Inverse folding.
């Protein structure tokens, strides 16, 4: 008897059927024992970060956070009489695993940077929107309230964070991306502590808040789903580039406290884990719809300008972003999330993808074109960060979110 579980709905959508044919070799389905092992991680959190947050909450306002920031900037050795929780945390993140290859991390960052601001489309339309199908993971987002009522600012902060951790050289110790990864890990611990204090948290239905399964799932949305999404939009990577991008995110996941057992070591591992998560976590509910509506509204607000032209741009922004989501998530999931359905916009997305693919094919055969595209992509990302910084003033220290939690 075949012990393999049947395919989840995710792999019945058009986009992932294509992915399974192009990038997946062999049978990636898990058996019942593997499924049970994964579900054990739904009850696991992040003890080191949770202990730091508990220490911060015991101390006077601002004191514990200041100690964390000093250790982050100058090293734990610079903190006199450092709390044992802080020593344990920074001792752990300072013990870089043997498998981390910073040359590969930087190559992966260059491949991501080459995509430029086009990378923001799969980030929001595939990774974030697709993540809302995982209803257990959405409960912490809904519980904070800010992801719905301050969706634009929070999601632009996520985009800024993504740019920081995927900029070449920025994941080295002391650099901005390295600090951003650890700060967001602490944000997760603050939110987790807040959810654990709630009397209405349903552990039987929702698992532990921001647990290991959910953080591993988030990692896959930023890594594997991003790579797949940009390929659907016409971007071309070599096999080595795809592997390097996943290696970068494996290291980011490790910095953010994901258990090493859940960190894919290869593209095949990543697809297998995505299958498991799709089979167990993609159970949308009404909160999924609420968050989807908030994200659609974000596209409208970011695209909106002055006058009639601004309204047209906002309308086009919503239609294009929703079309990308529909093409990847499939009709059933998109209809459930109540995403706008515009065949003309979907045709425009496919046409643009074909143009991108042709341009990418030329790039691969023109000497110096890849390096030039990396510079263009880097300039576009810097311009984007400056623009949203002026318009929305994102909090890249995440201090407000920690206080709110």
């Amino acid at each position: 008897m075949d012990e393999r579980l049947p395919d989840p709905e995710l792999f019945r959508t058009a986009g992932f059927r294509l992915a399974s044919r192009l990038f997946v070799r062999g049978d990636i389905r898990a058996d019942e024992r593997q499924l049970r092992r994964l579900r054990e991680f739904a009850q696991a959190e992040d003890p080191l970060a949770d202990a730091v947050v508990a220490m911060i909450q015991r101390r006077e306002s601002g004191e514990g956070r200041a100690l964390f920031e000093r250790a982050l900037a100058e090293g734990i050795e610079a903190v006199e009489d450092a709390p044992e929780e802080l020593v344990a945390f920074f001792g752990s993140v300072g013990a870089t695993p043997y498998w981390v290859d910073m040359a590969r991390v930087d190559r992966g960052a260059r491949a991501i940077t080459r995509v430029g601001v086009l990378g923001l489309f799969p980030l929001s339309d595939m990774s974030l929107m697709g993540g809302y199908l995982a209803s257990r993971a959405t409960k912490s987002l809904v519980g904070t309230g800010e992801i719905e009522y301050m969706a634009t600012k929070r999601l632009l902060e996520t985009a800024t964070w993504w740019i920081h951790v995927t900029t070449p050289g920025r994941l080295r110790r002391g650099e901005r991306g390295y600090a951003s990864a650890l700060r967001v890990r602490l944000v997760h611990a603050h939110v987790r502590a807040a959810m654990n204090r709630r009397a209405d948290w349903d552990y039987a239905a929702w698992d532990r808040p921001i647990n290991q399964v959910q953080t591993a799932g988030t990692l896959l949305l930023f890594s594997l789903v991003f790579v797949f999404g940009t390929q659907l939009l016409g971007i071309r990577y070599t096999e080595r580039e795809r592997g390097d991008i996943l290696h970068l995110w494996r290291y980011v996941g490790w910095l953010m406290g994901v258990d090493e057992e859940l960190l894919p070591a290869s593209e095949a591992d990543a697809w297998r884990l995505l299958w498991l998560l799709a089979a167990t976590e993609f159970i949308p509910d009404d909160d999924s719809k609420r968050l989807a509506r908030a994200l659609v509204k974000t596209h409208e607000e970011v695209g909106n300008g002055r006058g009639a032209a601004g309204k047209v741009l906002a309308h086009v922004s919503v239609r294009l972003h929703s079309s990308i989501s529909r093409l990847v998530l499939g009709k059933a999931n998109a209809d459930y999330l109540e995403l706008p359905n515009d065949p003309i916009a979907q045709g425009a997305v496919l046409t643009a993808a074909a143009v991108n693919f042709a341009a990418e094919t030329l790039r691969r055969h023109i000497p110096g074109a890849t390096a030039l595209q990396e510079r263009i992509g880097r300039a576009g990302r810097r311009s984007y960060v400056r623009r949203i910084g002026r318009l929305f003033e994102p909090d890249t220290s995440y201090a407000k979110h920690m206080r709110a939690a």
Residues 1 and 55 are 52 Å apart (CA to CA). The radius of gyration is 21 Å. The mean pLDDT is 88. Residues 103-404 form one domain.
